[in-house]
């Protein structure tokens, strides 16, 4: 047997233990500040616009800078992490977004805020790519989606909590928005705690560092055995050859189809997700609601993120993730359209809550689904590429929203968002592979079916 299969089989047999629980808590709170920070601009934008006397298009430019940074971060870190390791990459990326979140608070001009948000975006998306890849590599297949959902449930609490931090801090003074970015810098604590995590033994093995892979795997097994007793024998299921592959692998064989599907899905997800989440407070103000009411309603809606992620935690390993992605994309489309077609406060809050809830059910499912479709050698590169291109799409996303709003009005923005989600659902249903409960090595073995034949 190859050591790749052996490492995979040894990881698959492990019961959930303190090793896994430590990963859960560190990554959950790294995501807590990462997901909160992604949304800080949407909560502070109306105050910045007023304090600096800006046009709506200027806010769109800073939003575009954030997503340009996210594209660069996701694209670069995929390559880097596949070479220097998941653990070091995770620590580095958390520090980047924490440090530059702090620097956002001291921005004195739109130019400086543009630059600091660009680098913050780099760290945010890079951390996401490394985090979801690490989870996919150390959790057993039958529990992978469940614990991805749990991590995201905790992490997504960062969105409503950050919303309420903004709700109370932004209105206190013209410069109150700066405190929201200081809050986001607290993620650095979890860069320190990540130093106690193990490197992914799957990554070690695929870099040819067999002794390191075995050493880490043995230490993990020893820790689990102390808590759980003797472990069952590993079950060897496949024997993939160890190889060193590059980006070209993503565009060859069966991975070409998977890459193209994921690229389109992530582009549509980004346009639909951030078309709603990033613009709700600003569009409400532009449409005539007060800043205080806009922040209050946005904060109330954001609470939906927590039950949404919990739904993903409950469902992820019970149904195939492909079909869950389709179902919740359709639900987001319907609720988002109903949200945009009404001007009644109660209905805005109810459907806004449902959109936020379903968005955060959808996100952990897609985060779990994406890295499963690639082999270990290019898993982080593949996840980074499709995630990064998706974020690159939102460099233009704010321009699209502003153009639609200026030319066709408030409701047309939400018709555009709903259309993006419906198209995503159709593409995933037709072309997306199934992954439920399948060991990563089996899913990516030579015998795996082609995209489009796994529906």
Please sum up the structure shown:
This protein is mainly alpha-helical. It has helices at residues 3-12, 18-38, 40-51, 56-84, 86-104, 110-138, 141-155, 158-169, 178-184, 188-194, 201-206, 210-228, 253-277, 280-286, 291-302, 305-315, 321-340, 345-372, 376-408, 410-431, 440-443.
Labels describing this entry:
disordered C terminus; Growth Hormone, Chain: A; mainly alpha; single chain; 21 helices; 455 residues; disordered N terminus; globular; 0% strand
Q: Which runs of at least 5 residues are low in confidence (pLDDT < 50)?
A: 1-5, 239-243, 446-455
Distance between the termini: 31 Å
Assign a percent range to the helix content.
over 70%
Number of separate domains: 1
Structure summary, number of beta strands: 0
Instruction: Please indicate the percent range of residues in DSSP E strands (runs of 2 or more).
Output: under 5%
Domain Major facilitator superfamily (MFS) profile: 23-436
Subcellular location: Cell membrane
GO molecular function, one term: carboxylic acid transmembrane transporter activity
Protein name: MFS transporter, putative metabolite:H+ symporter
What does this structure look like?
With 455 residues, the protein is mainly α. It is 76% helix and 0% strand. It contains 21 helices and no strands. It has helices at 3-12, 18-38, 40-51, 56-84, 86-104, 110-138, 141-155, 158-169, 178-184, 188-194, 201-206, 210-228, 253-277, 280-286, 291-302, 305-315, 321-340, 345-372, 376-408, 410-431, 440-443. The chain starts with a helix and ends in a 12-residue tail after the last helix. The relative contact order is 0.16.
